[in-house]
């Protein structure tokens, strides 16, 4: 039996989730309606913790940090808060996964089993407790590294990847081997997401996303339950289940672009290549696309290569930038160093002003074109 601590203040959601999980005959569920109740139950061991963020007596993220001092089981956040900053912050503070409410109970079960499976895979490996090398010291209990006099907490994905390399020194892994060892699934390769320019056929969103599984099927094979499940999970992950039955020919550009991203996710790619995904979209949909790319990179550990004509967007989400010039030269490096006034002038023949400012404690950069040169 998998012991689940369910921390949820909404009585109806709490009870419905408990009833569904226990009906699966593999879960024992202990419920808590507040942080205080959760800490009281946390004296006992659990295999997984489902944690709401908006609790009546505390913030779920703060509670997560407290629970982490005594529990190293997976902590899955379940919250109606779905903005990228919240999700990233929750994972950085010790969460292993994030599920946006309302969610399908079948997806919840799949997430629980996937996280428990990863813990079991880690447990089968040699212990890393006390591991030290010249570059850093790894604390397996707190999932942090001590490097250059500083303790750095690792996100779950960072810890699993570092652990794999530590346990297998001087070993080369292919992208698919990494995906299998870290996620427990085969990657079917890299995925390409074209620019949404309208759909020619009236497929529903679910049908369009399921088409992404075609690389997994034989020439005359039809999608099965596992293919539909992969499609539904991909739509759930990026928050577009509401589009399930909507025809692609009736969608806005932003909606269709999200469907195409979900389609690419069905093959569990190690890399996404996106062709101008935010072009021809309004401000809102541009932000949705950019935040989705950030979320996928953080949650899944996917590398994303984004072709864009917007330097400002590259500054917003990119770690690295490659600037291609018409004369055949290129500049590659940290995005903030590559995208500067001099390079913009040379590459685009445009004089720009790059403005850096802060709003609510967050740093932003804007690129303003001034005039041609």
Please, could you describe this protein's structure?
It is a single chain. With 373 residues, the protein is α/β, with parallel strands linked by helices. It is 39% helix and 21% strand. The chain has 14 helices and 15 strands. The strands form five sheets. It has a five-stranded parallel β-sheet, sandwiched between helices. Strands 6-7-8 form a three-stranded antiparallel β-sheet, with no helix packed on it. Strand 4 (75-79), helix 4 and strand 5 form a beta-alpha-beta unit. Helix 4 (84-92) runs parallel beside helix 11 (283-300) and helix 10 packs parallel to helix 11 (283-300). It is globular, with a radius of gyration of 22 Å. The N and C termini lie far apart (69 Å). The mean pLDDT is 87.
Give the strand order of the largest sheet, numbering strands 1, 2, ... along the chain. Answer: 2-1-3-4-5
Question: Can you summarize the main beta sheet?
Answer: 5 strands, parallel
Helix content: 25-40%
Structural shape:
globular
How many beta-strand runs? Answer: 15
Tags for this entry?
373 residues, alpha/beta, 5-stranded parallel sheet, 3-stranded antiparallel sheet
Give a summary of the structure in a few sentences:
The chain is of the alpha/beta class and 373 residues long. The strands form 5 sheets. The protein has a 5-stranded parallel beta sheet with strand order 2-1-3-4-5, sandwiched between helices. A 3-stranded antiparallel beta sheet has the order 6-7-8, with no helix packed on it.
